[in-house]
């Protein structure tokens, strides 16, 4: 029988990734992380082997997905498909919560070289 217990995670003890993300909680099929990043930071186009669903708590971010560009601000949600070529540019100091499926931090899926 599958584990059916409810878990509470103390975020002060949560691990952080190479890009500064805080891994909040992880299951076998999805995980959740906190993304805090200063304005102006970003990276090159890259792909990731997971789907990303995000919610902007504060700030603004420009997300390039292939040839499309969307800008998300406080209260906006976004979806970046698994394997899609993407790039992020933080326009205003950003706090976002993201869910990834499968979990980003497993099997080096969140390797910082693609940021």
UniProtKB/TrEMBL annotation:
In this protein, which residues make up the domain named Cupin type-2?
A: 38-93
Gene3D superfamilies tied to this protein: Jelly Rolls
Q: Where is this region: Disordered?
A: 1-22
Compositional bias, Basic and acidic residues, is annotated for: 1-10
* Entry coiled-coil feature ranges: none
InterPro entries per UniProt: Cupin_2, RmlC-like_jellyroll, RmlC_Cupin_sf
Which protein, by its recorded name, is this? Cupin
